[in-house]
Structure formats: C-alpha cells, structure tokens
Amino acid sequence: MTEVLSPITGSVWKIMATPGAQINEGDTIVILESMKMEIRVKSPHNGKIIEIRVKEGDSILEGDVIAIVEH
Hints:
This protein has 71 residues and is an all-beta fold. It has no helices and eight strands. The protein has strands at 2-5, 10-15, 22-23, 28-34, 37-42, 47-52, 59-60, 65-70. A four-stranded antiparallel beta sheet has the order 1-8-6-3, with no helix packed on it. It starts with a strand and ends with a strand.
C-alpha cells in the first residue's frame, strides 16, 4: 500500500476518487487549491483506493496523507 501525500499546504477543493474504486497511474485522486491555483494529486501507480483521509474543504499541510492506494 502507498500513502499519497499532499505536495503543498492548501485546502481540498474536490475529491475525484472514492474508496474501493480502481484507479490507474496518473488518475486524479483529489484537487487541491492553494493561492487560487488548482493542483491535481495523482495516483502514483495502478491500484485500488483503500481510503480517502480528507474531506472537501479541509485545510491540509504539505506532507499530510491524502489517500491510501493498494497495488
């Protein structure tokens, strides 16, 4: 399993994946907003979303765990 980390400090704008969903490498898991810019957080590999650890509107810090993806 892989922890998908936030690359920036910002807020969760939109969640694009749901737990249990199959996901491909490069698919967007969540979209973050920071300083009016949208940053897509993408899956590092093919797998299944085990857990989403954030909710839309949450404030997060760089390095926070956003999701867990199983190989």
